[in-house]
Design goal:
The chain has one helix and seven strands; from the N terminus they run E-E-H-E-E-E-E-E. The protein is mainly beta. The strands form two sheets. A five-stranded antiparallel beta sheet has the order 6-5-4-3-7, with no helix packed on it. Strands 1-2 form a two-stranded antiparallel ribbon. The chain is extended and about 80 Å long.
Length: about 100
Amino acid sequence: MTLMPMINIAAPRALVLTPPAAAPITTAFVDQNGAPVLLTDIVRPGDRCTIRTRQGQEISGKAVIINRDQNVVVLNGGGKYGRPVIACEENIVKIKKAK
């Protein structure tokens, strides 16, 4: 005797996907009027940024790529091939604008 798997022939339910509610913008940077400013609005390619790692070490590098979707900046940390370093609002310490 062979057992057959049970098949549910009921009408499929409609799958409704709703996008998550947009979260309010929270940022550590403010302009002179006190309005929030995103990190990607401040940093431009060529700027020198310093970040602090989880271990407390400070690393500086030149801004190379600006990602506005994730609000992060990719830094060139130096070295023979250019070590990529990710700077976000939580770990950034200092920004020196390019000339």
